[in-house]
Design brief:
The chain is globular, with a radius of gyration of 27 Å. It has a 5-stranded antiparallel β-sheet with strand order 14-15-16-17-29. Strands 1-28-27-26 form a 4-stranded antiparallel β-sheet, with no helix packed on it. The termini are far apart. The protein is an alpha+beta fold and 451 residues long.
């Protein structure tokens, strides 16, 4: 009688394959990564990368929805510092509205000022927000943590200023806020008079922003084309840089303490390091109209800008060219733009009284993803980054359809820049050597720096 050998000797790899924690685990597959065994791996991955970049453009549908309800042009827009679902907007008729983004509904409407609402900012505890208007008042509105905002009828505190205010910002961790107008004032919420005022020989300061990391520093944009910096511990302004054209606003990088980006009237955005204002870190091109507003993503790696040319662009923090451009037929000139704190959405306001919600990644799928979906998307991203510089993939990935007037204006702008370079080359060619020096673009927009 022949005995049957044990199962482990007949099938020596059975125990290896069966050693799974649960019955849903996938069997481990052994693979040899030797490239000589896989001669067609590169062409196969290239075909997959090409399909992935094509599918990305097919599924690129960034627009989510719009919020309407204002009866005049929206002048200011701010996000809640702790709740992702709440934004506050103020318009030219003095009305302030609180919006619920998931339901796309207005939670409450406040007649805050008699005239333009020039600025809104939240306090560090997020229990209240402060508004300023053309009626020379600074008002504090308490909202609390509850979702029933119908009881907000009267301001909890009102300060009457001597001059018209044009901007406001609040320190992220101190009970201090700053306003701008004829000068920059530092306020304490418990006092009716400013703690100190900064003046540096300009007519109007139209924008001011506190640094979210170095919380004692704030920057402002003035009508004399300058960007000025202050320290709330000092009595005088620190320094300023004057550009060729006026800057509309600045935004500090939330991850790099001294880096900021300025939205300028010269259709560009300028990124500086505050410690070295003689040269820019990067000049960002793409818009064909004055850039009105700019806001960084929470990661600090990207920022978004809204322009007078009715488009939204998304730039890498160190890239001179935008990676994405959003536009619609109905959207008019943009006034404000913000990037949500979960890094997924962009909210903008425009002249035709609407707020619009966009995806920060145009082809991203909303909702919960399964594990296999995440793995497939990560694999596609790796393939696209691996073959990003192949001509066909690069062309598909970078091409964007834009309105006809933007396309024609962009071509005209390109011809003007080329003609300017050609004139400069001719002037240098027929002049005495050294009289027409080369000047880098990162220094070309700077007039001077004052301290």
């Amino acid at each position: 009688m022949i005995r049957r050998p044990p199962r482990s000797t007949l099938f020596p790899y059975t125990t290896l394959f069966r050693s799974r924690e649960t019955k849903y685990d996938i069997h481990k597959v052994q693979r040899n990564y030797n490239p000589t065994i896989h001669p067609l791996e590169a062409p196969r991955e290239y075909a997959r990368a090409l399909n992935a970049v094509k599918l990305e453009r097919v599924f690129a549908k960034p627009f989510i929805g719009s919020l309407d309800g204002h009866k005049d042009s929206i002048q200011c827009l701010v996000k809640h510092p702790k709740k992702l679902s709440i934004v506050v907007s103020g318009c030219c008729d003095g009305v302030v509205k609180l919006w619920n983004l998931p339901t796309r509904e207005c939670m409450t409407t406040i007649q805050a000022h008699s005239g333009f609402v020039r600025g809104i900012c939240f306090t560090p505890d997020s229990q209240s927000f402060i508004t300023i208007g053309d009626d020379k008042t600074i008002k504090t509105w308490v909202i609390g943590d509850e979702y029933d905002y119908d009881e907000i009828a009267e301001a909890s505190n009102t300060i009457i200023n001597k001059t018209i205010l044009t901007g406001i910002t609040h320190s992220i961790n101190k009970d201090l806020f700053a306003t701008c107008g004829e000068n920059v004032n530092i306020w304490d919420s418990t006092r009716a008079e400013p703690l100190k005022s900064f003046i540096w020989g300009v007519d109007t300061v139209h924008s001011v922003k506190f640094n979210p990391i170095e919380t004692n520093i704030l920057g402002s944009c003035a009508s004399d084309r300058s960007i000025m910096f202050y320290d709330v511990r000092e009595k005088e302004p620190m320094r300023k840089v004057i550009l060729k054209m006026r800057s509309n606003t600045i935004c500090w990088n939330p991850m790099e303490a001294f880096v900021f980006t300025a939205a300028n009237e010269d259709e560009s955005l300028h990124t500086f390091d505050m410690r070295n204002l003689k040269v820019e870190m990067c000049v960002h091109h793409g818009h064909v109209g004055a850039v009105i507003d700019v806001d960084y993503s929470p990661t600090g790696r990207e920022f978004t800008s809204g322009s007078y040319d009715r488009t939204i662009r998304i730039f890498g923090a160190d890239k001179f060219k935008s990676r994405e451009v959003y536009h619609t037929k109905r959207m008019q000139r943009l006034t404000n733009i913000i990037w949500s704190l979960d890094n997924k959405y962009i909210i903008c306001s425009s002249d035709e009284m609407n707020l619009r919600i966009w995806k920060s990644n145009a082809s991203e799928k909303l909702g919960v993803l399964k594990r296999r979906e995440k793995i497939a998307l990560d694999y596609s991203e790796k393939l696209k980054s691996k073959f990003a510089y192949h001509p066909e993939i690069k062309k598909i990935q970078q091409h964007r359809h834009v309105p006809k007037y933007i396309h024609h204006t962009k071509n005209q702008k390109f011809l003007m820049i080329e003609a300017k370079k050609r004139r400069e080359d001719n002037r240098r060619k027929y002049s005495k050597p050294g009289t027409v020096p080369y000047k880098s673009e990162r220094r070309n927009y700077i007039v001077r720096e004052d301290e």
